[in-house]
Amino acid sequence: EAGVVQSPRYKIIEKKQPVAFWCNPISGHNTLYWYLQNLGQGPELLIRYENEEAVDDSQLPKDRFSAERLKGVDSTLKIQPAELGDSAVYLCASSLDGQSEAFFGQGTRLTVV
Amino acid sequence: TQLLEQSPQFLSIQEGENLTVYCNSSSVFSSLQWYRQEPGEGPVLLVTVVTGGEVKKLKRLTFQFGDARKDSSLHITAAQPGDTGLYLCAGRYNFNKFYFGSGTKLNVKP
After folding, report:
1. A15: distance to nearest CA of chain B, Å?
2. How many CB atoms lie within 10 A of CB A22?
3. Average pLDDT over residues A35-39
């Protein structure tokens, strides 16, 4: 069974440019998470979806970050415009429901120069 | 502010030594998970503990959940270089909120 798939694996962009990350969760998983992880730190939750509804986006910087999960399956996370401090790994995870174990993708490493 | 505090932040030991990593919070978890993450990869789930006082073993790794479900520990016996990585605890609060600790970076030297 395929795990959580994220793309791209790596992205280098100039500051002020837009960037988008894509996540395909495990089939049948209703809950999807986006996390931000700085080097050597624990992941920090950005947004959590239950199906297509964003049920926890309190940590998402809404002035520049946006996310969507159309049809309750794939999800995209966008940053516009990117800033130097956005350089980090962006992790996507999914679980059967909001109380089940979460499984992670490999992440997208973003470097803003 | 981290809801879960892990200690130590860094740990460098020799192969064969034992070690314990701690995860603490002032809040009660409905469940707690331990993950291990290698560079360039996403976290990989090691174990989930749910019941206060629960102890689970995974080969040389022993996980314990505190009686009050506010803390947890991970003990590794006879550490090996392959155990090197970032160990993360993650707690579930109020059933739907799921947050990670700050992580413990373990380096096991041959």
Report:
1. 23
2. 15
3. 93
d(CA A86, CA B15): 37
First-last CA distance in chain B:
36
Q: Is A56 on the interface with B (CB under 8 A)?
A: yes
Nearest CA of chain B to the CA of A67: how many Å?
19
A63 phi/psi in degrees, rounded to 5: -70, -25
Contacts A–B by Cβ distance under 8 A: 60
Angstrom distances, CA of residue B59 to CA of A13, B46, B62, B68, B78: 43, 11, 8, 26, 11
CB distance from A45 to chain B under 8 Å?
Answer: yes
Task: Check B101 against A42: CB less than 8 A apart.
Answer: yes
d(CA A38, CA B51): 31
Q: How much is the pLDDT for A71?
A: 86
Answer yes or no: do A40 and B33 touch at CB < 8 A.
no
The pLDDT tens digits of the residues spanning B60-94 come to 999 999 999 999 999 999 999 999 999 999 998 87
